[in-house]
Specification:
The chain has 201 residues and is α/β, with parallel strands linked by helices. The chain has seven helices and nine strands, in the order E-H-E-E-E-E-E-H-E-H-H-E-E-H-H-H. The relative contact order is 0.14.
Length: 201
């Protein structure tokens, strides 16, 4: 008998020089909402973030399948703009989207998705439009000048918007909804003290 329970495992991609600050709001609050966060690396060898955090991945990218995941999160990082080392993660994102499993990409990861052709026909954002234009992708007409953008199963954001990115991720997975999601965003983005009581009501 096939289970109809929602998949509760979220996969966070990790690689050398990943941008620590970009995914913390999303992963912390998903974890607090009952999701399991598992890290996936190029292999299971330890990686080191921009901030010097040493992370040992839970699994290697080749082991990851969309069927085992509720979401793939791709943080930015220097390697997205320094060759093709992270191209396999963009290819995995294609596999996820083809399987109708959400993907959330921020900062440099959006350029990786652009190179993979995944932004050619989806609404998206990034750091700035010309950053993506430099990849030679064909999706410029779908670029949205916004903090974060959700188009179906794809979430994108720029490097200065980890809270807006978190809002889109939490909303897409149903961790928070409606007024509670709005309160979460106002608390962490706007430092609105009234939002704290609303969030914890």
């Amino acid at each position: 008998m096939t289970s109809t329970a929602p998949r509760k495992t979220v996969h966070l991609a990790v690689y050398d020089a990943l941008a620590d600050w970009e995914t913390g709001h999303a992963t912390a609050w998903l974890a607090r909402s009952g999701f399991e966060i598992r890290t996936v690396g190029p292999s299971t060898a330890p990686v080191t973030s921009i901030g010097g955090l040493r992370i040992t991945p839970d699994l290697a990218l080749e082991e990851l399948t969309p069927e085992d995941s509720a979401l793939l999160i791709l943080p930015g990082g220097d390697l997205w703009d320094e060759g093709d080392d992270l191209a396999p993660f963009a290819a995995k994102a294609r596999e996820f989207l083809d399987a109708k499993v959400p993907v959330a990409a921020i900062c440099g990861a959006t350029a990786g998705l652009a190179r993979e052709g995944l932004l050619d026909d989806r609404r998206h954002t990034s750091a700035v439009s010309f950053y993506l234009s430099a990849t030679g992708y064909q999706g410029g007409e779908h670029y949205v000048d916004a903090d974060a953008v959700t188009d179906g199963d794809l979430i994108t954001a720029g490097p200065t918007e980890p809270v807006a990115f978190g809002r889109e991720v939490l909303g897409r997975l149903g961790a928070f909804e409606g007024a509670k999601l709005d309160a979460w965003y106002r608390l962490f983005h706007d430092s609105d003290p009234a939002a704290y009581e609303e969030l914890n009501a």
